[in-house]
Amino acid sequence: MSSPKDFSLEVTPPIDTANVESLNLLKFTVKDKKNDIILKNRPVILFILTGTLIAYISNIIFNVNLEHVDISHLSKVQYGFILALVTMIALVSLRQQPEDTMIVMKGIGVQLVTKKKWRFQNSSQSFIPIKDMIDLVIHEGFHKYGQVIFYLCVLTRSNDQSGNDDSNIIKVIFPEFLPRRDILLKVWKLSRELLFGSPNRYWRRVPGQGLKQVLS
């Protein structure tokens, strides 16, 4: 069963295929179309939680001063409530919009950035210079429970000078979302045009030298 994959693609600057060659940089961002309720209402949520925390602590301090009670005698419920409020404030503050980004730089290469849902999760970032790129292609493969998907990837050459083709590496683009083929096709077409200046690239294996581009 296929997943909804209700994602949006943002292209910066807005572009069409007619004027790609006049640009030096394109940024593609894939994110969920649905607005995260927490992010959408974060200022209000933080205001309520922070206000509640301040009011609660102020009330405790007032009662301690009024009744001359040692603050160490606070109940576990009071400590637990304060800890819960602090935890919720921290989690709301650490929430961010998950997204996959590819920045294509003409004649230089591509920058791949993946942001997770939480700031404390490791976000990945990598740069692929154009000299290490073989091609930008759309592949078909299996994902999770045998679901057939399309994915965009960069075929790269290893820095190994032995000419061993087995050392070639595949870099998946948009790994967090794996968007549908219509988005992949648009990104693929615009990216290849900007990177290589032509939609056609041909390669052949040269004995002892690995893959070599054939100019047409």
From TrEMBL:
GO terms for cellular component: glycosylphosphatidylinositol-N-acetylglucosaminyltransferase (GPI-GnT) complex. One of its GO terms (molecular function) is glycosyltransferase activity. Pathway: Glycolipid biosynthesis; glycosylphosphatidylinositol-anchor biosynthesis. The keyword RNA-binding does not apply. InterPro entries: PIG-H, PIGH-H_dom. Residues 101-175 form the Phosphatidylinositol N-acetylglucosaminyltransferase subunit H conserved domain. Keywords: Glycosyltransferase, Membrane, Transferase, Transmembrane, Transmembrane helix. It comes from the Eukaryota. Belongs to the PIGH family. Pfam families: PIG-H (PF10181). GO terms for biological process: GPI anchor biosynthetic process. The chain crosses the membrane at residues 44-65, 77-94. This is Phosphatidylinositol N-acetylglucosaminyltransferase subunit H.
